[in-house]
């Protein structure tokens, strides 16, 4: 595993500070929060979080993309990945899957991304 981490650290990354929301499951509960990307690469995303992530599992990110589809429709980059490192308020995931998705106007409104932890389990 150490050799793989070294490979990931040497890959090209782009320093981008983009708003994001994240979610993950732990102990039968879904946790959500907000943050900001530090850098994105072809295999990893490093990001700041508003709360510490509790486990090393699957994480979903939704990143507000700075460009619009055909200069009209807002986009977000949806990424699913595995948490490979976390300390205090910084986390890194290894990307498993990603896609751009179109949005409504209020997707990143202050109410929708207020940084609270919620129990969404029924």
Description of the structure:
Strands 2-3-4-7-6-5 form a 6-stranded antiparallel barrel. It starts with a helix and ends in a 20-residue tail after the last strand. Strand 2 and strand 3 (29-41) form a beta hairpin. With 122 residues, the protein is mainly β. The protein has a single domain (2-102), classed as Thrombin, subunit H (Beta Barrel), CATH 2.40.10. 7% of the residues lie in helices and 52% in strands.
Shape: globular
Annotation field: number of helices = 1
The description of the largest β-sheet is:
6 strands, antiparallel, barrel
Question: What is the CATH third-level topology name?
Answer: Thrombin, subunit H
Order of H and E elements: HEEEEEEE
Mean pLDDT: 81
CATH homologous superfamily assignment: predicted glycosyltransferase like domains
Strand elements, count: 7
Q: Determine the structural class based on helices, strands and strand pairing.
A: mainly beta
Strand content: over 45%
Question: Residue ranges: pLDDT <50 for 5 or more in a row?
Answer: 109-122
CATH architecture: Beta Barrel
End-to-end Cα distance: 36 Å
Query: How many separate domains make up the residues?
Result: 1
What's the Cα radius of gyration?
Answer: 14 Å
- Percent of residues in helices: under 10%
Widest sheet: strand order? 2-3-4-7-6-5
């Amino acid at each position: 595993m150490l050799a793989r981490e070294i490979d990931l650290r040497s890959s090209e990354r782009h320093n981008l500070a983009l708003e994001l929301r994240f979610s993950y499951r732990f102990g039968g509960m879904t946790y959500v929060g907000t943050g900001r990307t530090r850098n994105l690469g072809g295999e990893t995303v490093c990001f700041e979080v508003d709360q510490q992530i509790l486990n090393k599992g699957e994480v979903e990110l939704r990143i507000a993309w700075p460009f619009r589809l055909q200069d009209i429709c807002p986009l977000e980059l949806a990424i699913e990945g595995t948490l490979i490192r976390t300390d205090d308020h910084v986390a890194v995931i290894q990307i498993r899957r990603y896609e751009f998705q179109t949005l409504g106007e209020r997707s990143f409104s202050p109410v929708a991304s207020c940084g609270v932890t919620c129990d969404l389990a029924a």
